[in-house]
Design goal:
The complex is a heterodimer of chains A (215) and B (127).
Chain A lengths: L3 H5 L11 H15 L5 H14 L2 H13 L1 H9 L1 H6 L10 E6 L4 E6 L8 H4 L4 H4 L1 H9 L1 H7 L9 E6 L4 E6 L11 H5 L16 H8 L1
Parallel strand pairs in A: 1-4, 2-3
Helix pairs in contact in A: 4-5, 9-10
Chain B lengths: L25 H15 L5 H17 L9 H15 L5 H16 L20
Helix pairs in contact in B: 1-3, 2-3
Classes of the chains: A mainly alpha (215), B mainly alpha (127).
């Protein structure tokens, strides 16, 4: 960043410079604070929550519980909002959650074609690719091609269903439980559950893949 | 499958390997949090927010933004400015005047010191 033009207007020391975007954000925040709509400390707290406490680990907990507790799984597929809330994860926008079960016959994938609606409470904020136009347009037209982009191959017989999120409904994909995990605890199982597997652009890790990732 | 209507090869690649942090700059986080808090305060329904954000994304695309995800919070900010003016919390002129006031304040603040409104000595009009 150059401050040279500041010197030209008579300063003997370097002054500050904010970008046009930073100026717009500060303008908005200072007006909203003055009018009592937002509290700067509450903004800090919300940001801290999303940077450190809300993320795909929440969703992995939900998935691992569904894999290991049949009653919970049944509740989750019937009323995902309540089942997920029972684990302490509740939505900010009052959105309705739907859990989608992946099976050998059916694979689910989630997109938001309009903008980037995403199940924040269980997955945190969306990755860059989820917000990108290429994903938003390709997911609905060529889901198998999208899986290929992510390095995922499914048998031709597997039917792929794409779900378009809205302001009211957010989806959580429950990936298939990997083979060779009988007797694993919920905590161990949760480590197999990746963010992408809960969006449907990936699969849960196999025990071998988990070992490789840890090395 | 019939893709006759769309040339998929013409689409840019999905940025699958972009693992940017959720907020790449502090202003993105401020803009994010302001929208969430205004919704919680009942200023707008989330459905209205999604409409405003979707409209700004389409605007940006129409102006040539390849929309690969990195400009997402710029669309978010534009949607926020649009919705606060639509809800008459402030007017566009108020936002612009306040932006100028911050610019003057920044330029009057030695580098490294916190920037405060009015630092340049001129009065800051309520918006």
């Amino acid at each position: 960043m150059s401050h040279s033009h500041d010197h030209a207007i008579g300063h003997n020391h370097e002054t500050s410079e904010l970008t046009d975007t930073e100026l717009r954000v500060r303008a908005l925040e200072s007006i909203l604070v003055e009018k009592g709509y937002v509290d700067p400390a509450a903004l800090d707290e919300l940001i801290e929550t999303y940077e450190t406490r809300v993320g795909p680990r929440n969703g992995a907990h939900v998935v691992a519980k569904a894999w290991s507790d049949e009653d919970f799984a049944e509740w989750l597929y019937r009323d995902a909002t309540a089942a997920i809330q029972s684990l302490g994860y509740s939505g900010r926008q009052g959105e309705h959650m739907v859990a989608l079960k992946n099976t050998a016959e059916k694979h689910n994938m989630v997109v938001c074609t309009l903008c980037s609606c995403y199940p924040w409470t269980v997955l945190g904020l969306p990755p860059v690719w989820y917000k990108s136009a290429p994903y938003r347009s390709k997911a609905v037209r060529d889901p198998r091609g999208v899986l290929d982009d992510f390095g995922v191959k499914l048998p031709d017989e597997t039917e792929i269903t794409v779900w378009d999120s809205t302001a009211e409904v957010r989806y959580l994909v429950i990936p298939r439980r990997p083979e060779g995990t009988d007797g694993w605890s919920e905590v161990e199982l949760a480590r197999l559950v990746t963010r992408d597997s809960m969006i449907g652009t990936g699969l849960a890790l196999s025990p071998d893949e988990l070992r490789e990732a840890a090395e | 499958m019939n893709h006759a209507d769309v040339d998929l090869s013409a689409l840019p690649e999905i940025p699958v390997r972009d693992n940017s942090p959720i907020f790449r700059e502090p202003w993105e986080a401020r803009a994010f949090a302001m929208a969430v808090k205004l919704n919680e305060a009942g200023v707008f329904e989330w459905r209205e927010w999604v409409e405003s954000l979707g409209a700004e994304i389409r605007n940006a695309q129409a102006k040539g933004d390849p929309d690969l995800g990195q400009t997402y919070y710029l669309h978010w900010l534009a949607a926020l400015e649009r919705i606060v003016t639509e809800k008459r919390i402030t007017a566009t002129e108020g936002l612009l005047a306040r932006k100028d006031a911050w610019d003057r304040a920044a330029k009057a603040t030695p580098h490294g010191e916190p920037i405060e409104l009015g630092r340049d000595g001129s009065p800051v009009a309520p918006a």
